[in-house]
Amino acid sequence: MTKPNMHYADLKDSYLFYNISQKIKAYLAEHEGTHLYRMGIGDVSRPLCDEVIKALHGAVDDQAGADTFHGYMPEPGAPFLRETIANYYRSRGINLADDEVFVSSGASDELGDILDLFDRENSALVIEPAYPAYVDANIIAGRKIVHLPAGRENGFLPDPSEDAVADILYICSPNNPTGAVFSKAQLKNWVDFANAHESVILFDAAYEAFIEDDSLPRSIFEIEGAKTCAIEICSLSKTAGFTGTRLGYTVIPKDLVRNGMRFNDMWVRNRTTKTNGVSYIIQRGGAAVFTPEGRRQIMENIRYYKNNARILTDTLDELGIWYTGGKNAPYVWMQCPNGLKSWELFDLLLNKIQVVGTPGEGFGACGEGYFRFSSFGSVEDTTEAARRIKELFK
Predict the structure, then answer these.
(1) Same-domain status, 82 and 214
(2) How high is the pLDDT of residue 206?
(3) Please, which residues bridge with residue 214 across strands?
(4) Pseudo-torsion of CA 61, 63, 65, 66, nearest 10°?
(5) Contacts of 317 (CB under 8 A, 6+ apart)
(6) String of b and e for 16-54 (b: at least 16 CB within 10 Å)?
(7) 3-class SS of residue 374
(8) E strands within 50-167?
(9) Same structural domain for residues 336 and 275?
(10) Among candidates 153, 207, 177, which has minimal Cα distance to 334?
(11) Is the pTM of this model over 0.70?
């Protein structure tokens, strides 16, 4: 008899977003036609910028001509896009070879696939609260998970600890859900820790484009020593609105070696075995993101979302409610007022003022007592939601 992967039975029910959808469904059934101010979802609302659209249309036209048609693309990514992304890093003072960049269908896919590079006996450290997929992907693989708690006392940016040593170290900065960003000194502690223990950091940089403080690192490879201990996974989903278009990239330095195995070579072998590459059309659209005009246009959208975050944080400042995030990230992570638990606050906001956010408990036990707002909605809805929150808690 075929034996399934029994580790799936160890997964907790995905109750967070299911419960949210069920509560919203029940509320709307009783209040038909009510407009909800949705600030819980992490999806974007602004369309792709004109430069990307032009590139996508041009690539579609290429597929109509015999001389310009493209079939299968190189599995690690088209040379034109790998070079473009490497140049983006080089423009920021990070020296990468083109073939240290791999094109992917998005950070979420890559965060799961990249675990193929690690033995199942490797342990994984997750800083919580955390993006739930970090935990779930390793449960599915049957790995031991080490939980490192974070909280208000350290700004949700803990230092490494000898009590929490693991083979795979997950770091997300700017963080989802907290919006907190590690400083260069803090990341240097993690890089030194990883090299000392021969661990590998999986650095989730999906929100790097939201960092406006030049003193904060946007890449792990700004840190000395990172090339011998880190893999960086990034996405154009939030940077350029590619949530429905699907494109990302991963950086694996050639200096990253464990037990005589070079991770860059391993990933080339993995991609050529398990994928057929990313669509030519999508890769052309992605390349347009890194042109001067593309950068200008996507920054307009990012400023739009960051203005939404400012509207929210200004409201919390006025109310005296503690939070992190917002300035250098698209998420605002607030402490629940009046001693409310996170689901209690969700119910209060939904039923009293029709505002929807995400209860912190859904991101792990350390998230209890906190609440996440997303800035990816419209400015009109964000402004009205902020007004209602102010009236509720003033």
Answers:
(1) yes
(2) 96
(3) none
(4) 170
(5) none
(6) beeebeebeeebeeeeeeeebbbbbebebbeebbebbee
(7) strand
(8) 101-104, 124-128, 145-149
(9) no
(10) 177
(11) yes
Q: Tell me the percentage of the chain whose pLDDT exceeds 90.
A: 95
| Dist CA 314 CA 379 (whole Å) | 14
- CA 176, 180, 183, 186 torsion-angle sign: negative
Instruction: Say yes or no to pLDDT of 215 above 90.
Output: yes
Separation of CA 323 from chain center: 19
Identify whether residues 92 and 156 lie together within a single domain.
Answer: yes
Domain boundary among 250, 272, 291: 291
Q: Are the CB atoms for 129 and 152 separated by under 8 Å?
A: no
Same domain, 105 and 223: yes
β-bridge mates for residue 147, sequence order: 126
Alpha carbon 285 to its chain centroid, in Å, reads 20
Q: List, for residues 69-95, the tens digit of each pLDDT value.
A: 999 999 999 999 999 999 999 999 999
User: Which CATH number characterizes residue 325's domain?
Assistant: 3.90.1150.10
**Cβ pair 192, 186 in contact under 8 A:** no
Residues 6 or more apart from 7 whose CB is under 8 A from it? Answer: 139, 140, 141, 142
User: What amino acid occupies position 311?
Assistant: I
Q: How many angstroms separate the first and last alpha carbons of the chain?
A: 63
Angle at 247 between CA 129 and CA 326, to 5 degrees: 40
> Is position 64 within any domain?
no
Whether residue 173 is contained in a domain is answered as: yes
| Number of structural domains the chain divides into | 2
- Rounded to 5°, the CA angle 357-234-251 comes to 160
How does the average pLDDT of the chain come out, rounded?
A: 96
Q: Of 291, 311, 331, which residue is a domain's last? A: 291
* Residue 344 domain-assigned (yes or no): yes
Q: For residues 128 and 194, what is the distance between their CA atoms, to the nearest angstrom?
A: 18
Chain segment 319-328, per-residue pLDDT in tens: 999 999 999 9
**Residue 15 confidence class, pLDDT cut points 50, 70, 90:** low
How many residues in the chain? 394
Q: Could you tell me the residue range of the domain that residue 283 belongs to?
A: 71-291
Burial class (CB in 10 A: 0-12, 13-18, 19+), 62: middle
**Pairing status of strand 200-204 against strand 168-172:** parallel
In this structure, is residue 113 part of a structural domain?
Answer: yes
DSSP single-letter state for residue 55: H
